[in-house]
Specification:
The protein is of the alpha/beta class and about 230 residues long. It has one domain: Spore Coat Polysaccharide Biosynthesis Protein SpsA, Chain A. Helix content is about 30%, strand content about 25%. It is built from seven helices and nine strands; from the N terminus they run βαββαββαβαββααβα. Strands 1, 2, 3, 4, 5, 6, 7, 8 and 9 form a nine-stranded mixed sheet that branches. It is globular and about 50 Å long. It starts with a strand and ends with a helix. About 35% of the residues are buried.
Length: about 230
């Protein structure tokens, strides 16, 4: 089975290029029965023979938009390349364990009404969500909470879901992009779950130079966009 993977990267230095390579190879090597067609959306435009990082062994398409980085704009750039029944959106700083997608696929076979998923980050859950999955019979947990049930750094969806969300709202160029996805699928009655035994570790937020600054002016402005769009309570 073919699966489309969209990976957003910024290969501006060797550290980030190696991080992207680690992410892509962990996906590529994680399953035997699934073929991952990786579409790399590259932010770094300044490349030459010395710095160009080649992903020929794992990447099907490498796209470098002319525009400045905008998370949802860049996702939209991948639309014409998608042809599989499943779409994965991943950051370039995630390590995927072997069998991670199989676990999601098996849950979907049991519950075909769940069409959006995230893997579980063992570090995140051990530190912040210890109460979840105490019952070993629970293979998955339906939840829309960002960073608890819906991991913005790794979202797996049926192509039908992508087609409903597309075009992604380009007003969300970074912050609250995952929240907007969450509200969109809720609005369309699409169920989301995090899968207990699907393991992927979000390493570090390296792609964004200054990280997530919760009290920044931009963060506040983007939050206001989200509240206004979905009529949320502050």
């Amino acid at each position: 089975m073919n699966i489309d993977v969209i990976c957003l990267a910024n290969s501006k230095n060797e550290t980030l290029r190696e991080l992207t390579k680690l992410t892509l190879h962990s996906i590529h090597d994680s399953e035997k029965d699934f073929k991952f067609n990786v579409h790399l959306i590259e932010s770094c435009k300044e490349k030459n023979l010395d710095t160009k990082f080649k992903y020929d062994d794992v990447v099907v398409n490498e796209i470098t938009p002319e525009e400045s980085f905008n998370y949802n704009l860049f996702l939209n750039k991948a639309n014409s390349y998608l042809s599989s029944d499943w779409v994965i959106i991943t950051n370039n700083d995630v390590f995927y364990e072997r069998g991670w997608f199989s676990k999601i696929y098996n849950v979907h076979k049991q519950r075909p009404d769940i069409e959006s998923f995230s893997p579980k980050d063992p570090c995140l859950y051990s530190q912040h969500f210890k109460c979840h999955f105490k019952n070993t019979d629970e293979d998955y947990w339906e939840n829309y909470k960002v960073s608890e049930g819906l991991m913005g750094w790794s979202i797996i969806m049926k192509k039908r879901v992508w087609d409903i969300v597309y075009p992604w709202d380009e007003n969300f160029d970074l912050y609250y992009q995952d929240n907007d996805y969450c509200e969109t699928i809720k609005h369309n009655n699409i169920k989301h779950a995090v899968v207990r035994d699907s393991i992927a570790t979000h390493l570090i937020s390296q792609t964004v130079e200054n990280g997530f600054i919760s009290n920044s002016e931009k963060n506040k402005n983007d939050y206001e966009k989200l509240v206004y769009k979905w009529n949320l309570k502050k």
